[in-house]
Design goal:
Largest sheet: none
Strand content: under 5%
Structural class: mainly alpha
Shape: rod-shaped
Amino acid sequence: MNLENIFILVVGAVIGFLTSVAKDLIIANKKDKEKKKQFKREKLEELFVILDKFNDSVMKPINQFSSLEEKAKLGMIIRFYFSDELQDSYKTLLSASTEVLKVKLENNNHLDMYYQRFMPEYQKLLSKITEESKKYL
């Protein structure tokens, strides 16, 4: 074996090693991105379910939202994972729900306020969640 053959063998081995490492990094990166997408999809699904419960509690005469933990979870998911995309709509929805609650506490018919003030904001937030979910398909 001459020096040229040894050099070609070493260069080939280095290229093979670097290619193998690059492939592993690309695969790991792809798996990481897919995990993040899956996590965001799960959080959006969870958001949708909690918002549905929240909507029911605002509409019903007696506040029957299942727990304070779910209310906190709703706010936490939006603030931690989707603050830029959903924060403003969420704040507006909370404001609308407060207005409906005031009418409820006065023992007045709150359904007019619910349909005029809360429902449009609820629909806007659901639309934004739907749009956000399209990013993670």
